[in-house]
Design brief:
Blueprint (H helix, E strand, L loop, with lengths): L1 E6 L3 H17 L4 E2 L7 E8 L5 H8 L8 E11 L7 E8 L2 H13 L14 E6 L7 H13 L4 E7 L1 E8 L6 E9 L6
Length: about 190
C-alpha cells in the first residue's frame, strides 16, 4: 500500500482549479496536469507500507486534535524547486497557524511506527501539475511561468477543515487515484 495523510478540499475550490487547469492546458499541453478530484493538502507522505500496519497508523492518528478548524486560502501559482527548473506546479496555501502544528503532530505520531521523518520544512501547497523537462517545449514552459506570474494574487477559494484523512494512492497508467481509507476528527471534544 502507498499511503499519505492529508486534508481534503471543498468542491468549490476543485471547480476553480479545474477551470484554471483547462485554460493552462491550452498553453502548455505537455505538462501532466493532476486530476482535480484528487487535489489535497498533504500533511505527511508515508509511502509504501504493508497493509498490516494500517491499523497502527490509524491508532496513531486518532488522538491528534486542534483547538479550532484549519482555515485556508488558496492563492497564486508557483514551482518546485523554482521557475528556472520546474518539476511541480503548485497553488499556494495560506493557512491558520494550527496547520503547521497538525502536520508536526502527524510526523511525531507516525515516527515511532518507523515512518521516516521529513526533514524539509512543511510548505502547504496543492500540486496541480508535474513537469518532465525532457517532454515540455521551452516556449510552452515560458508561457506557463508567465501565466503563474499573472496569477500571483488570484484566489481560488478557501476552506475550513475539521478532519484529517488517511488515503491510499493507487498508481495507474492514467495517473494516480486516491482512495480515502479513514477520517479523523480534529476538534477537541470530537469523538
Amino acid at each position: 500500500m502507498r499511503l499519505f495523510v492529508a486534508l481534503n478540499l471543498p468542491e468549490e475550490v476543485r471547480r476553480e482549479l479545474r477551470r484554471l487547469m483547462e485554460r493552462l492546458k491550452e498553453e502548455c499541453p505537455d505538462v501532466r496536469w493532476v486530476r482535480p478530484e484528487g487535489i489535497h493538502v498533504t500533511l505527511k507522505f508515508i509511502g509504501h507500507i504493508g497493509a498490516e500496519k494500517t491499523a497502527a497508523i490509524c491508532a496513531a492518528l486518532k488522538p491528534i486534535r486542534s483547538e479550532r478548524p484549519v482555515e485556508m486560502q488558496f492563492r497564486g501559482l508557483g514551482f518546485f524547486p523554482n521557475e528556472r527548473r520546474p518539476h511541480v506546479v503548485w497553488c499556494g496555501v495560506e493557512a491558520s497557524p494550527n496547520l503547521a502544528t497538525i502536520a508536526a503532530d502527524v510526523e511525531a505520531a507516525l515516527e515511532p511506527l518507523g515512518m521516516a521523518k521529513e526533514f524539509r520544512p512543511f510548505v502547504p501547497h496543492l500540486t496541480v501539475a508535474r513537469i518532465d523537462s525532457n517532454k515540455v517545449r521551452l516556449p510552452d514552459l515560458e508561457k506557463l511561468v508567465h501565466a503563474a506570474d499573472e496569477l500571483e494574487t488570484t484566489t481560488f477559494g478557501s476552506a475550513r477543515e475539521t478532519e484529517i484523512h488517511l488515503f491510499e494512492s493507487l498508481l495507474k497508467p492514467s495517473g494516480a487515484e486516491y482512495k480515502r481509507l479513514e477520517s479523523f476528527p480534529l476538534l477537541k471534544g470530537a469523538a
